[in-house]
Amino acid sequence: METNKPKFKVRLGLFIIIGIAIFSIALFIIGKQKTCSTPVFKLTANFRNVSGLEVGSNIRFSGINVGTVDNIKIINDSTVQVDLLVKKSAQQFIKNDCQAAIGSAGIIGDKIMVISQGSEAAPMARDGQHVESKEPVETDAIMASLQVTAENAEIITNELAEIMIKVNSGKGTLGKLIQDTTIARNIDLTIKNLRSSSKGLDENMNAAKENFLLKGYFKRKEKAAEQKKEDAINEKE
Fold first, then answer.
1. Per-residue b/e over 15-24, b at no fewer than 16 CB within 10 Å?
2. What's the whole-model pTM score?
C-alpha cells in the first residue's frame, strides 16, 4: 500500500484520533475509580473572588492535602460558590466553625484551598455543610501597598539627604553646632566654668562648716540625718 494515497492518510488520521479518544476515556475511568475508592464528604464555601482557584486544586488542612476542589460556579454578580471534596478520614478533625481560605502553594505557586482549624469544643463538620470563608488578598492590592511603601521610603530618604546636606554645610542649629568651631569652643568653655563653679561651691561649703558660727547648724543637720538613718533601720527590723 502506498503511503502517499489520500485513503491511507485518512485512515491514519482516524486511527490516531480513535487512539487518543480511547486513551482519554481510560484516564477518565481510572480517575473516577480512584475518586470513588476514597470515601469523601462535601463542603461548600462562598467567595467574592476565587483569585485563580481552579477545579482540581488541592485542599489543605494543617499543611496536609486532604481533598480537592470539585466545582466552582458563579451564583450571582458578587458570589462564587466553591464545592470541596474532603477525605472522610479527615472529617473528625475538621470542625463546623472552621474557615475556608484561598492560599498559594509557595510564594508564586498554584492556588490551593486552606481549611483552618476550628475550636476544640465545636462538633465536627457535617457532609454538605456550608462553611465560613475568608476572602483572599489580591496580588494587585499587595503590589499597590508595596508601591506606596516604596514611595514613602523615597520621600523620607530625600528629606534625610537634604538634612545631611544642610548639616554638612553648617546650616541650621545642628549644622552650626557641628561645623562652627566658635560655638564648640564656647560650649567647651561653659562646661569648664560649670565645673570650676561647682568646685568653688564645694570649697565654700566646707569653709562654712568650719565657721564657728555655723558649726552648730551643720552638727544638728548631721545628727538629724543619722537619726533618720537609724529610724529607717529600726523600721526594717
1. eeeeeeeeee
2. 0.47
